[in-house]
Amino acid sequence: MSVYPGFRDDLLAAVPSLRAFAVSLSKNADRADDLVQEALVKAWDKQASYQPGTNLKAWLFTILRNEFYSQMRKRKREVEDSDGAITARLSVHPPQEGSVDLKDFRRALEQLPEDQREAIILIGASGFSYEEAAEICGCAVGTIKSRVSRARTRLQEILAITGENDFGPDAISTQITNSVFTA
Amino acid sequence: MNYGKPKARSGVERRGKGDDPLGANSEIGRKLRQYYDDLIAEDIPDRFSDLLNKLEQKSSADTAGNKD
User: Fold this and answer.
1) Same domain for A126 and A169?
2) Is the overall model pTM greater than 0.90, yes or no?
3) H or E segment at A101?
4) pLDDT 10s digits, A47-71
5) Which of A17, A91, A135, B57 sits 20 to 30 Å CA-CA off A164?
6) Which domain does A10 fall in, by range?
7) Where is the secretion signal located (chain A) (predicted)?
C-alpha cells in the first residue's frame, strides 16, 4: 500500500519533470528513461521516508540525482574499457524540431560540468528555489548560487564561441568526450 | 524601462537585489526554459505507468521493504 492514496498518481504526474531532469543530467534520452525507471522503483521502495505534504517533486529529484551519480561512477569504469562507445552514446539525441539556436544551446549546456549543469537546470528551468536546489544537491545555498552564476557565465562564453568559430558536432563531441572522460 | 544602461563587460557584474539573472530578460534563462519545456512536452512512454501499476500490485501483495 501507499503512504497516501494517490501516491502512485502523483509519481506518474512527476514523470515528465523527472525525464526532463534526467535528460539534462545524462545527456541521453535512453539513459534518462532508465534513470527515471530506477528512481521510481527506489521512490516506491522508500516511500515510508516521504512525508506527505512536503515537496514530492524535490524528494523525487533527489532520488533521481543520487541514482544518476551512482550510475555514472559505474559507467566511468565501463567507459575506460570501451572508449568508442561513448561517442556514439553522446549523439543519440532524438531529432527534435527546433531552431539551430536551441541545438547550439543544448550542446553548450552539455559542455558544462555536471554540478553547474544541474544547478542551472534546477533553478532556471525546474522552478526550484535556491534552498530546495541546495537540499536536492546536498550542498549549501551559496554553493548553488555560485554554480548557477558560473554556469550562466560559461554558457554565454560558449554560445559566443559557437557563433563565431564553426565547430562541427563531431569536434564538439570529441571535446566533450576528451574533457569529461579522460580526466 | 531602464534597460539602456551600459553593460558591464561580463556576467561577473554585480546585479541589483532581486534581479533574477535567469529571469525573463535573460537570453540564457529563456533558452533554458525552452530547452526544458520541450523535454517536458515529450510523450511519456507507457513503461512508466505500467511500472507503477506493477509496483502497486506488488506492494499490496507483499509489504517487505527492499532498501539499499
Assistant:
1) yes
2) no
3) helix A100-111
4) 999 999 899 999 999 999 999 999 8
5) A91
6) 1-94
7) none
Tell me the three cell numbers of residue A79.
567507459
pLDDT tens across B10-39, in order?
Answer: 444 344 444 577 876 688 999 999 999 999
Q: Which of A16, A105, A155 sits opposite B44 (nearest CB)?
A: A16
Query: Residue B14 is placed in which grid cell?
Result: 554585480
Q: Which residues of chain A make contact with B34, given a CB cutoff of 8 A?
A: 102, 105
> What CATH number is attached to the domain comprising A154?
1.10.10.10
Half-sphere exposure of A1 (CA within 13 A, CB side): 3
* CATH number for position A89: 1.10.1740.10
**Dmax (CA) of chain A:** 57
Q: Are A60 and A142 members of one domain?
A: no
ipTM, 2 dp: 0.75
Tell me the C-alpha distance between B32 and A45, whole Å: 33
Q: Which 3 state secondary structure label does DSSP give A182?
A: coil
Among candidates A1, A17, A33 on the partner chain, residue whose Cβ is nearest the Cβ of B40: A17
Show residues of chain A in contact with B45, CB under 8 Å: 33
Q: Are residues A148 and A111 in the same domain?
A: yes
Rg (CA), chain A: 17
- What total number of domains does chain A contain? 2
Residue A141 is which amino acid?
A: V
Q: Are residues A119 and A134 in the same domain?
A: yes
